[in-house]
């Protein structure tokens, strides 16, 4: 389905129209909040909406714009995931309970405010971001705007649903095992997993696994938001406007070792191979390669499970947590000592072994997920072990890049026969965001994914 630019205005487009005086921040914010409230009974993308605060911020933005003030996102409405502190709201990270309100902004939120953005609310995420589906007893189920019977993915599922449905043009998510890239794949968005340390977080999240990153409908919009929260000026937006040059792209479909039963769905494989053909048509050389992942998963679990343990210590009532969360936290307590230290110590060796593939290619192209988005409720009633098996079977491709700390970009790769979005990853070595963004923007020109939109729910 297609829709007009006015129905789905981009982040850069809104900023330009505001600067030109063609629209006011008050109008854009009222539209975004109206769509958020109207879609909430169906999509359930938001944990908190900031009506009064957002309207006040929009009024201030209009005053500044009228006075000739300019900033990259002055007056543009955006949203953030509910694992990031925002003054005056709790950071419950998908959990039930009476959390205290944050008394200061996270560094990335401070940068959004400095850029003039109007933050309309905080988006839903599963408990402590553990799963690739955004469902839980604290808030219910967040649904995919392309088909509300299916998940938008997770753990940045609320951000993805809000952007894909046109409530806002871009949102901030976080990615600890694919949590930006997976929902981007399953909702037809561009999602950037940033280089570790690129965006300030105020401390290590999940022992270096988790980074913040943007979700948007276009590469330019994702790059613009990244420039703001990484305080890089126009570095990444400039990259989105620059040709990447002829690249050698390695196509890889082998699933990293997970000790679980996994299989790449033929529909997903066909979509990724079709995208490789599009890249070849742009003049890039495509070669089939397989990175030497080895037993990288053994270094992931101590970091992720200890991170769950760390976060549960902030929860006011741990008895209200999902039994799977409490089980994971218990495993994290056991792994928090020597196993965690060993996992961190092994990282340089993994960089050398897996990174050797970039001596043969410039970029890796892989599936983002192994399956299309599952139906809502697929993971209900499963034990912790069964949940792990099911989610790894669906999403075995993204997490190694969190261990490495390197960047990756999800790009839309087409749809199933039922109209469910699919995605592919462009993966690079350390600090390769500019190359990946340039390549993604070039691909967007021929794939034209910003023209595809779901039926609106507002």
Q: Output the radius of gyration.
A: 20 Å
H and E string: HHEHEHEEEHEHEEHHEHEHHHHEHHEEH
Q: Find the CATH topology.
A: Amidase signature (AS) enzymes
CATH class categorisation: Alpha Beta
What would the average pLDDT be, to the nearest integer? 96
Shape: globular
**Looking across the biggest beta sheet, what order are the strands in?**
1-3-2-6-8-7-12-13-11-9-10
Annotated CATH architecture: Alpha-Beta Complex
Tell me the count of domains: 1
Separate helix tally:
16
The assigned structural class equals: alpha/beta
β-strand number: 13
Sequence stretches where pLDDT stays below 50 over 5 or more residues: 1-5
> Beta-strand percentage?
5-15%
Major sheet description = 11 strands, mixed
List key phrases describing it.
458 residues; single chain; globular; Amidase signature (AS) enzymes; 11-stranded mixed β-sheet; hydrolase; AS_sf; disordered N terminus; two-stranded antiparallel sheet; alpha/beta
Could you walk me through the main structural features you see in this protein, from its secondary elements to its overall organization?
This protein is α/β, with parallel strands linked by helices. The chain is built from 16 helices and 13 strands. The chain has helices at about 10-20, 25-45, 50-65, 105-115, 155-165, 180-185, 220-230, 235-240, 265-280, 295-310, 325-335, 340-345, 345-355, 385-395, 400-405, 435-445, and strands at about 45-50, 75-80, 120-125, 135, 140, 170-175, 190-195, 210-215, 250, 285-290, 365, 410-415, 420-425. The two termini are about 15 Å apart. Mean pLDDT is about 95; it is low at about 1-5. Belongs to the amidase family.
């Amino acid at each position: 389905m297609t829709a007009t630019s006015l129905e789905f205005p981009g982040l850069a487009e809104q900023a330009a129209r505001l600067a030109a005086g063609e629209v006011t921040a008050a109008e854009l914010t009222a539209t975004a909040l109206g769509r958020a409230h109207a879609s909430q009974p169906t999509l359930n993308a938001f944990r908190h909406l900031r009506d009064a605060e957002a309207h006040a911020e929009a009024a201030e933005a209009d005053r500044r714009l009228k006075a000739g003030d300019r900033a990259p996102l002055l007056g543009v409405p955006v949203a953030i995931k509910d694992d990031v502190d925002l003054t005056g709201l709790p950071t419950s990270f998908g959990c039930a309970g009476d959390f205290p309100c944050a008394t200061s902004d996270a560094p990335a939120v401070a940068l959004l405010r400095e850029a003039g953005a109007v933050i309309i609310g905080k988006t839903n995420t599963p408990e402590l971001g553990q799963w690739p589906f955004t469902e839980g007893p604290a808030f219910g189920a967040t649904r995919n705007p392309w088909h509300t019977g299916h998940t938008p993915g997770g753990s940045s599922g609320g951000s993805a649903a809000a952007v894909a449905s046109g409530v806002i043009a871009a949102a901030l998510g976080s990615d600890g095992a694919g949590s930006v890239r997976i929902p981007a794949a399953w909702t037809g968005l561009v999602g950037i997993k940033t280089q570790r340390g690129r965006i300030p977080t105020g401390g290590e999240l999940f022992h270096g696994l988790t980074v913040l990153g943007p979700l948007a409908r276009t590469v330019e919009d994702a790059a613009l938001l990244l420039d703001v929260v990484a305080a890089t000026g126009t570095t990444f937006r400039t990259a989105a406007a620059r040709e990447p040059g002829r690249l050698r792209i390695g196509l890889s479909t082998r699933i990293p070792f997970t000790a679980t039963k996994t299989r790449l769905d033929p529909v997903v494989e066909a979509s990724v191979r079709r995208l490789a053909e599009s890249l070849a048509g742009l003049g890039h050389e495509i070669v089939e390669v397989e990175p030497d992942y080895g037993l990288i998963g053994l270094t992931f679990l101590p970091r992720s499970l200890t991170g769950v343990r760390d976060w549960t210590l902030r929860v006011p009532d741990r008895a209200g947590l999902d039994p799977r969360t409490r089980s994971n936290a218990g495993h994290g307590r056991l792994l928090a000592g020597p196993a965690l230290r060993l996992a961190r110590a092994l990282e340089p060796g993994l960089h050398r072994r897996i990174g050797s593939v970039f001596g043969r290619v410039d970029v890796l192209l892989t599936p983002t997920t192994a399956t299309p988005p599952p139906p809502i409720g697929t993971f209900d009633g499963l034990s912790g072990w069964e949940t792990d098996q099911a989610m790894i079977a669906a999403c075995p491709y993204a997490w190694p890049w969190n261990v490495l700390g390197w960047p990756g970009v999800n790009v839309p790769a087409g749809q199933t026969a039922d109209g469910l979005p699919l995605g592919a990853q462009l993966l690079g070595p350390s600090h390769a965001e500019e190359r990946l963004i340039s390549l993604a923007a070039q691909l967007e020109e021929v794939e034209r994914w910003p023209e595809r939109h779901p039926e609106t729910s507002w």
